[in-house]
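2024-03-11 09:14:02 INFO worker-7 job=invfold-0412 stage=load source=structure_tokens
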């Protein structure tokens, strides 16, 4: 079925045999056969493949993948090298510069964050070309809620960065007092000035981790 190649395989054991996931799998087989779906099926679970369960320091929750060619590759807010940097990610880079003095990267590929312990998780992991939210309500939300639930169970502290209403709705799943939950407006140009700019989530995340004896996140992309 699905192999992450790390400790998520044990954490999510049995998930892919549940009825909801078997239905989702049949839906995806038809979609990938008959339509143009993003990301490539080999990249659907890149967030979890690049950030093992035991190594998660911070969690950023997005909505669904970018829906134009060449962009999505399984990490929320991230695009493959060679793609223009999306407006929301440009604003994330601006806040990074203000908060930590990290200059904006020349590309939008966030593998470095993922490999440094930042789980970049969309709540829906696939999408039709040109149709945002086209795979909403097909079962992915159940899967990603279960992922968040497993993260909540972990005793070692982590930080959840919830930007925008969709991400903030996941706050109810995070009940473990070991973890820190930070909320702000979405970094989209439509809302960034309503509380994303100036939120200082990157420094707050690192201060929390350091206070718990955990090495802070290296937020540099390059």
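2024-03-11 09:14:09 INFO worker-7 stage=emit residues=222
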């Amino acid at each position: 079925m699905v192999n992450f190649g790390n400790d998520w395989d044990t954490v999510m054991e049995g998930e892919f045999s549940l009825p909801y996931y078997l239905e989702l799998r049949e839906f995806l087989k038809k979609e990938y056969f008959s339509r143009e779906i993003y990301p490539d099926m080999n990249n659907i679970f890149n967030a979890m493949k690049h950030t093992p369960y035991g190594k998660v320091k911070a969690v950023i929750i997005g909505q669904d993948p970018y829906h134009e060619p060449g962009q999505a590759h399984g990490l929320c807010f991230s695009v493959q090298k060679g793609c223009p940097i999306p407006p929301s990610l440009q604003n994330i880079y601006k806040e990074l510069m203000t908060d930590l003095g990290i200059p904006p990267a020349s590309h939008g590929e966030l593998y470095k964050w993922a490999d440094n312990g930042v789980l970049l998780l969309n709540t829906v992991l696939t999408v039709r070309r040109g149709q945002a939210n086209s795979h909403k309500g097909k079962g992915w939300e159940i899967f990603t809620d279960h992922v968040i639930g497993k993260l909540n169970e972990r005793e070692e502290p982590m930080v959840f960065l919830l930007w925008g209403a969709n991400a903030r709705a996941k706050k109810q799943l995070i009940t473990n007092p070991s973890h820190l939950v930070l909320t702000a407006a979405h970094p989209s140009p439509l809302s960034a000035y309503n509380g994303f700019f100036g939120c200082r989530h990157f420094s707050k995340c690192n201060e929390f981790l350091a206070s718990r004896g955990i090495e802070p996140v290296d937020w540099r992309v390059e």
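2024-03-11 09:14:09 INFO worker-7 stage=report msg="The radius of gyration is 17 Å."
2024-03-11 09:14:10 INFO worker-7 job finished
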